[in-house]
Design a protein that fits this description.
The chain is of the alpha+beta class and 156 residues long. The strands form 3 sheets. The chain has a 5-stranded antiparallel β-sheet with strand order 1-4-5-8-9, with helices on one face. The chain has a two-stranded antiparallel sheet with strand order 2-3. Strand 6 and strand 7 form a beta hairpin.
Length: 156
């Protein structure tokens, strides 16, 4: 595999509190997410990491409500780091009946996406034990297995 063809992308989604934005709708509270993406000509592999980090105001509110048991320097500490998703974005369907997403910010003109939260434990452990370099190696290998080995098997 030519590593020069694979792009490493990191995207973040900041934490939010949308519980009070519209009194008729509660959009909830979300923690900061980080997406690690390996993108190549045939698609992309993503690992979504939940940081467990919420807005400070949310932490203070939850601390006052007795929902938190941990603090650091009297500041609320929230959640734990979790692997939320290991998935792929493909410009072509990867199995029969797979529906195309209407929009995709990873692949132009939409994509075919599938992922698993159960598969996210392994890349999380790799990230914790080996850091970013180990995670990129894992995601590149996953890209190779998903897109390149599959293509080679279909042509033989």
């Amino acid at each position: 595999m030519d590593k020069a063809k694979l792009e490493h992308i990191i995207k973040t989604r900041p934490p939010y509190d949308k519980t009070n934005k519209d009194p008729n709708k509660n959009y909830g509270v979300g923690s900061m997410l980080i997406l690690f993406i390996v993108k190549g000509d045939k698609g992309a592999i993503q690992f979504q990491l939940n940081t467990g980090g919420f807005l400070r105001e949310v932490g203070c509110k939850w601390a006052n409500e007795g929902k938190l048991t941990y603090s650091f320097n009297n500041e609320p500490m929230l959640g734990i780091i979790q692997g939320w998703d290991l998935g792929y974005h493909s410009p072509i369907p990867m199995y029969g009946g797979q529906s195309k997403m209407k929009s995709c910010d990873i692949i132009k003109d939409g994509c075919y996406y599938d992922g698993t939260s159960l598969g996210a434990d392994k890349p999380l452990q790799i990230y914790i034990e080996k850091g970013e370099e180990g995670l990129w190696e894992f995601l590149e290998e996953t890209y190779k297995e998903r897109f390149e080995e599959r293509s080679n098997n279909e042509t033989h």
